[in-house]
Amino acid sequence: MGAKIFIDGEAGTTGLQIRDRLAGRSDIEILSIPQDKRKDIDTRAELLNAADVAILCLPDDAARESVSLISNGTTRVIDASTAYRVDPNWVYGFAEMDKGQSQAIAEARRVSNPGCYPQGPIIMVRPLIEAGLLPPSFALTVNAISGYSGGGRQMIAEYEAAGDNASHFMPYGLTFNHKHVPEMTAYTKLTGAPLFVPSVGDYAQGMVTCVPLQLGMLGTVPTGEDVHAAIGGHLAGLTDSFVSLASYEALAKSPELDPQRYNNTNKMVLHVFANDAQAQVLLVAVYDNLGKGASGAAVQNLNLMLGVDVHTGLAD
Ligand SMILES: NC(=O)C1=CN([C@@H]2O[C@H](COP(=O)(O)OP(=O)(O)OC[C@H]3O[C@@H](n4cnc5c(N)ncnc54)[C@H](OP(=O)(O)O)[C@@H]3O)[C@@H](O)[C@H]2O)C=CC1
Ligand SMILES: CC(=O)N[C@@H](CCC(=O)OP(=O)(O)O)C(=O)O
């Protein structure tokens, strides 16, 4: 018998994607909930407690409720929501964030799957702060675009209904307290919140996160190559990483930054661009908000927790 997996919220955008990725795996038995019982608390409680691993693909409040329904002391949890991402009792499920993170995830009973937007900024900025190239107090900005599937079933329905009338590019979160800011701040190791401007585009899936760095005010100004080397050094220390770094692109003209480029994979590709004379660097991460940003990361975490090859079930 395979490990018993219950996906609470299996009919939603992230839940369906995880189901697809796990289909056909002989090491896993999916505990499925009848459609008419998917919000029934007793049926959910029964399946949550019967599972070896429960993957929660629910709004935050429902995810908290699911966790409270687990009474057996054995069911392990991967939560895709924002509910526990900066909770010290949970392990942050971004394996490439740190050398020891895969091991911490493999051993954890409670894993919070990372937010889609924060993953790019975290993996690009954290190594710079750790290397002393940026101070933790740096006034960071993050600009990003996501496909509309990032907004779940409701936003998908809205964009599909709008057709040609849908907005092509829409910045949002303009009070700058988007739900991803706490985890972005904590895991980049910044002391203050970055100014985060997300936007949604008129396409379904895929994202680009950009971190522009104005470095002129620093006492010691790192070059673009210094920045590239620090990020590359961090990635080189990882095993089983799905994140790669493109070659250094000073003053580049036409790189491959299409947000849809890595759709349906678990890949993330990082780029560093620079103009050293102006002390300016731009960090860019390209990945799939539904892949590495959500369901891919969840399956990566599940594989680590089950002790199977981390690439199993992932198109990388
Ligand atoms: N889409 C994305 O790119 C990403 C999403 N996430 C996170 O993953 C989680 C799921 O998001 P997503 O899949 O996009 O959202 P969806 O809205 O597509 O899916 C959520 C699912 O949960 C169901 N649901 C809601 N309340 C309950 C409940 N009380 N009991 C059982 N089921 C319930 C919904 O049913 P119904 O529709 O009938 O209400 C729906 O099927 C969220 O926390 C989201 O923030 C994380 C990273 C990226
Ligand atoms: C385009 C869009 O609306 N994106 C979502 C983020 C995706 C998401 O649901 O993120 P987490 O569950 O990982 O926090 C938003 O900004 O709320």
From TrEMBL:
Record keywords: Amino-acid biosynthesis, Arginine biosynthesis, Cytoplasm, NADP, Oxidoreductase
Catalytic activity: N-acetyl-L-glutamate 5-semialdehyde + phosphate + NADP(+) = N-acetyl-L-glutamyl 5-phosphate + NADPH + H(+)
Location(s), subcellular: Cytoplasm
Pfam families reported for this sequence: Semialdhyde_dh (PF01118), Semialdhyde_dhC_1 (PF22698)
InterPro entries named among the record's database cross-references: AGPR, AGPR_dimerisation_dom, AGPR_type-2, NAD(P)-bd_dom_sf, Semialdehyde_DH_NAD-bd
Main localization (coarse): cytoplasm
Enzyme active site: C116
Signal peptide feature range: none
Pathway(s) of this molecule: Amino-acid biosynthesis; L-arginine biosynthesis; N(2)-acetyl-L-ornithine from L-glutamate: step 3/4
EC category: oxidoreductase
EC number(s) given by UniProt: 1.2.1.38
GO molecular function: N-acetyl-gamma-glutamyl-phosphate reductase activity
All residue ranges annotated as the Semialdehyde dehydrogenase NAD-binding domain in the record: 4-105
Reported function: Catalyzes the NADPH-dependent reduction of N-acetyl-5-glutamyl phosphate to yield N-acetyl-L-glutamate 5-semialdehyde.
Family: Belongs to the NAGSA dehydrogenase family. Type 2 subfamily.
NCBIfam families registered for this protein in UniProt: argC_other
Full protein name: N-acetyl-gamma-glutamyl-phosphate reductase
Organism: Devosia rhodophyticola
Gene this protein is translated from: argC
